[in-house]
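Customer escalation, tier 2.

The customer says the design service returned an amino acid string that "doesn't look like it belongs to this structure." They asked us to rerun it and document both sides in this ticket. The original structure tokens are below, unchanged.
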């Protein structure tokens, strides 16, 4: 494989749209007291951990059509497997400089993503299990992981904090957002997934059902955000920043209702970009305000 092909399979730019989960966790009280650690944690997760999972997935899927964050995947060979292993090893080494708990988190996340993609287990072909587990790990798990690492919170301390409504609302919100958007990233892969025998959650729901699910989960997320911010100005600011994404989703839903083929790669990615950047800008503003 060429260096350019490997770079494309890292799907590094797509990590930006997963960034809101970590940023959200960092906005929780008591805020960031070590910006160096915050940047290091974000780099490890988004430059090493996520690309390691992406390349592992690409190696086992060997997609020929558009995939999440990559419109025209180059052919893959065994090189990509070793790139994935190397990135994971680097992430573990880098995590040692934070704490042991971060190393454990990365091992757990990496093990799940391997079970998700590997042909021997392949959770991906189990629609409901993959949907719930991806949303749990990329959403709630990463949210709690970021919070615990930033504040050196142990599992016991997390249990003691079980009455912290904000922490658990944030965890639920992070999972709900992935529950909404994860099936949308599969909506243009139905033919290729069917050819491999993978009944993804989007194939199970159908094209229209995928968009109904997105609206229901985003509505639930919005209600949780309203409770989280108690209807104060941060909630209104978030709504304002998400208007472009919501309007685009509404237009796309209308088009899909008329013609399911409208749910193609570029349409899904535009929705991801608009919602992802809206959330990133919002949480960066909140970090600056509370920092």
């Amino acid at each position: 494989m060429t260096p350019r092909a490997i770079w494309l399979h890292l799907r590094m730019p797509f990590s930006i749209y997963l960034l809101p989960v970590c940023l959200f966790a960092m906005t929780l009280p008591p805020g960031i007291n070590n910006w160096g650690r915050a940047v290091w944690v974000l780099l490890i997760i988004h430059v090493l951990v996520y690309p390691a999972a992406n390349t592992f997935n690409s190696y086992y899927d060997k997609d020929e059509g558009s995939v999440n964050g990559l419109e025209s995947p180059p052919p893959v060979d065994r090189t990509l497997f070793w790139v994935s292993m190397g990135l994971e090893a680097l992430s573990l080494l880098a995590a040692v400089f934070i704490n042991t708990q971060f190393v454990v988190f990365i091992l757990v996340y990496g093990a799940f993503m391997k079970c998700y993609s590997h042909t021997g287990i392949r959770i991906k072909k189990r629609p409901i299990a993959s949907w719930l587990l991806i949303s749990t790990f990329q959403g709630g798990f990463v949210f709690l992981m970021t919070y615990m690492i930033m504040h050196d919170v142990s599992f016991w301390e997390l249990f003691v904090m079980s009455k912290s409504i904000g922490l658990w609302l944030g965890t639920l919100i992070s999972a709900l957002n992935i529950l909404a958007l994860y099936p949308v990233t599969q909506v243009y892969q139905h033919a290729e997934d069917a050819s491999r025998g993978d009944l993804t959650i989007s194939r199970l729901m159908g094209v229209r059902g995928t968009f109904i699910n997105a609206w229901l989960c985003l509505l639930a997320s919005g209600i949780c955000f309203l409770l989280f911010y108690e209807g104060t100005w941060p909630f209104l600011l978030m709504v304002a920043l998400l208007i472009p994404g919501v309007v685009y989703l509404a237009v796309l839903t209308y088009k899909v209702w008329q013609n399911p083929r409208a749910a193609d790669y570029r349409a899904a990615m535009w929705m991801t970009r608009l919602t992802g950047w809206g959330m990133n800008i919002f949480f960066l503003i909140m970090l600056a305000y509370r920092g």
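Tier 2 assessment: The sequence is consistent with the input. The longest helix spans residues 201-229. The chain has twelve helices and no strands. Sent an explanation to the customer and offered a walkthrough call.
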